Predict the structure of VOC family protein.
Amino acid sequence: MSERGSYAPGVPCWVDLSTPDTQGATGFYGALFGWRAGFDAEPEAHGYGMFHLRGKKVAGIGPLFHEDLPAGWHSYVAVSDLAETLQKAGAAGGRTAFPPTRVTHAGTMAGLRDRENAFLLLWQPEQHQGCEVVNEPGAFAWSELNTRDPAAAQEFYPAVFGWNAGGDAYYTRWQLEDKAVAGMLPMPVDVPAEVPPGWVVYFAVEDVEESAAKAKELGGGQTSPFIDSPAGRLAMFHDPWHAQFAMISGVQEHH
């Protein structure tokens, strides 16, 4: 079932895009995924909007509004107690990127950096629980950490979210109560040192090669070859403003 009304603590629940061009990005992703965008006119929303698919919330979009919130796609993990989660992260060797910030009546967010400086957002929900549709074409499908130190991550994330590390020696499937919620793989040794570790957001599509062609027509680019994985056929991309994301077809249900 692809519709969601709530998320358990420790489960990735929302994704959003920070971009220097919200109008241009709205056009790009609308054409690529069939999304419609709506923006909150209230001043306290700071230009933040929501993407919808079939009338359901699937992602957010906003301008660059925080010095520690880089441009690009970001994953949010649901938590029940932000202060406690940030305390656990600090004790495990991470740091608070920015402190809890209430977002009108939607909920409260905070920024987190893990031991290798990979950036992740935390969400303590009120009225906004997260993505209302997942795991179907045009919707959020997976979050994946690319890191140079998987061993450090395998200590950090279980301490913060209670995740267990499954999978094999190369690919880690983060699990919460035996249900896969996210992934991790080591960054290739030939990746330049200035490229930081980080979380990649995956979107499901009907046919990744057709969607790749569409992304290129719209001004985006492909940054990896097509890969056949146990989860589906996938590739990495960037939009015209160089925000990175991945697309996958044949996705299996999870989280």
Q: What stands out?
A: The mean pLDDT is 92. Helices lie at 22-33, 82-91, 150-161, 208-217.
